[in-house]
Amino acid sequence: MIPVNYRKRLIEKDIEEKMRYSGAVVLEGPKWCGKSTTAELFSKTIIKLQNPITKKQYQTLATISKDEVLQGDKPILFDEWQEVPEIWDFIRLDIDENRYKGAYILTGSTKKQNLPVSHTGTGRINTIYMRPMSLFESGNSSGLVSFSALFRGETIKPVKSSISITDIAQYICRGGWPESIDLDFNDQLLVARDLLEGIIKNDVDEVDGVKKNKEKIRKLIRSYARNISTLVTNKTIYQDQNNEGLLLDYKTFDSYVNALQRLFIIENVKAWSPKIRSSYTIRTSDKKQFVDPSIAVAALGLSVDKLKHDFNTFGFFFESICTRDIRIYAQMINGEVYHYLDSSGLEIDLVVELHDARWAAIEVKMGENEVEKAASNLKKLAHLNEKNQPTFLMILTNTQMAYQRQDGIFVVPVGCLKD
Predict the structure, then answer these.
(1) Do residues 359 and 345 make contact, with C-beta atoms less than 8 angstroms apart?
(2) Which SS3 state, helix, strand or coil, does residue 87 take?
(3) What residues pair up with 282 in beta bridges, in sequence order?
(4) How far apart are CA 359 and CA 337, in angstroms?
(5) CA distance 327 to 351
(6) Domains and their CATH numbers in the chain
(7) Using an 8 Å Cβ cutoff, are 343 and 280 in contact?
(8) What confidence tens digit (pLDDT) does each residue in 237-283 have?
(9) What's 318's DSSP letter?
């Protein structure tokens, strides 16, 4: 049964596809991004292991009988399966014995360390990563420009976006959390804050079983938030902790960052390394990013007004929400998202590369006054890749009009884009 107010998720197509050829599908991603609700659409039996009573019951069953654990009409959903990790091997064996397809769905909000799993399940159990909602999924983007259609070589007609600067700031602060979409705006902000508090107070300890200093974790997330959409190094962020009077050895710092990555909260953008003939060295630093910009907003105590009165900071957060959406749309066509920087100073915000080697470059710019510089950078990168030209070049903006320039570059408001 589809829940009331459920908004269709793009990831549903991936789930349907993988269930046709996989014995089980694992849906991973941050808490509150909608994994459980979407997974329930594909399930006949639902077992919520985050419930302490259910968890204890299945921990006991796991010591008695595989058949008891896997009892129920298929497909069976094990929500937060890592709470009873023995389930993984039981499912793998059941798939092997019965040659099942689409028999199980597992969701997980944490990649816990040292889980007692004896086999990876490769070929039988396939994983899908789920992020919070894009602006198209939340109903805020008109979807008049299709990202996948641009990769098919289609052009665009001039169309308008109705999203204003204030709207963009609100969407950044709200985030893409399904539970927040229909709330009043003030309540929407509380969702991201509560999520962040839950991560700090509970989840960072559970991910590896090591109790952590909450104040140091809080400061670390704040430091990451201050450097969102930048190429600062971990060393710089580590030093930032010491500048705030928090003595933290690097090994502990590294374990804290690892915990946030395993909770799918930090999701940095890796550097693109194309095979090009150039006298310039390609930089390989990750760009600092969260899975959703609202986490950084909550960490820094920002608001719509604060963003609008600090246009420089607004620009970094605008790149963050654009990165989130482009990642969601690229995933639908088997694409990976990177950034580009070389020793000449040429920097491109986002590069999307598909599995068949097609690629596109995207510059994220807040205003029309930056469009010409962005276009110049895009054309420089295309010139460096003469043997493998981009399928398209795009300037992703917050402006109202989507159109194609005379040089072929697309200018597209994020409020017009869809998968």
Answers:
(1) no
(2) helix
(3) 342
(4) 10
(5) 10
(6) 11-129 (3.40.50.300), 145-418 (no CATH)
(7) yes
(8) 888 776 666 677 888 889 999 999 999 999 999 999 887 666 677 88
(9) H
